[in-house]
Automatic annotation (TrEMBL):
This is Nitrate reductase molybdenum cofactor assembly chaperone. InterPro entries: DMSO/NO3_reduct_chaperone, NO3_reductase_chaperone_NarJ. It comes from Paenarthrobacter aromaticivorans.
Length: 206
């Protein structure tokens, strides 16, 4: 099972990252790796088709619009638990601590350490158990992101489902169930965070 998880996490890390020229050349490799596991490639098919059939500028503009210009599809796991509150600094520090414990050098490439593609790559390449623990700890964040992508009919939602399927337990049936399970939504007390509206639920040591 561990090899399967590593492939899913690495493929997801790439498919959820900014589609630069290097990533666009990796789509055949991603397909080939996923075909080793029956049914796995189907969860990635929509995004891979998008990467392969769109002009680079078009797909890059689409990515920025959907993932960088708003919070509906935030890829930073602690946003969903801590928003832009003051305590988020401590949470981000815990991600860095987890990376350091692996005794591997994790290059954040200027991203915050809770950036989902980074966590996935860490799990795939550096420490499967440690990375998977972070994903389990932030399972509700993954589910909230999945529902946001589903609501906006983005094919990335199936990739989030593939990630969640590697974790213990079934996915909650709806967003309210996720919030009941986790007991939170993005906090509103914080510096610069817009008031929360439930309808908008949206690698090596550092």
């Amino acid at each position: 099972m561990s090899r399967h998880e590593q492939v899913v996490y690495m493929a997801a890390a790439w498919c959820l990252s900014y589609p630069d020229e290097e990533l666009l050349t990796k789509t055949p490799l991603i397909r080939a790796a996923l075909t080793e596991y029956p049914g796995a490639v189907e969860d990635f098919e929509g995004v891979l088709d998008l990467l392969e059939s769109s002009e680079p500028m078009e797909i890059q503009t689409h990515y920025v619009r959907e993932f960088d210009m708003g919070r509906r599809h935030a890829l930073h796991l602690s946003y969903w638990t801590d928003g832009d509150t003051r305590r988020r600094g401590e949470v981000l520090g815990n991600f860095k601590k987890a990376y350091r414990q692996s005794e591997a050098l994790v290059d954040t490439h200027g991203e915050l350490p809770d950036y989902l593609p980074m966590v996935l790559e860490y799990a795939a390449r550096v420490d499967l158990a440690g990375g998977r623990d972070l994903l389990i700890r932030y399972r509700a964040s993954l589910e909230m992101l999945r529902f946001g992508l589903l609501r906006d009919e983005l094919p990335h939602a199936r990739i989030l489902q593939a990630i969640c399927d590697t974790l213990p337990g079934k996915s909650p049936a709806d967003e309210q169930a996720v919030m009941r399970m986790a007991g939170y939504g993005p906090p509103t007390e914080a510096v610069g965070l817009d008031p929360y509206d439930p309808r908008l639920l949206p690698v090596k040591g550092v």
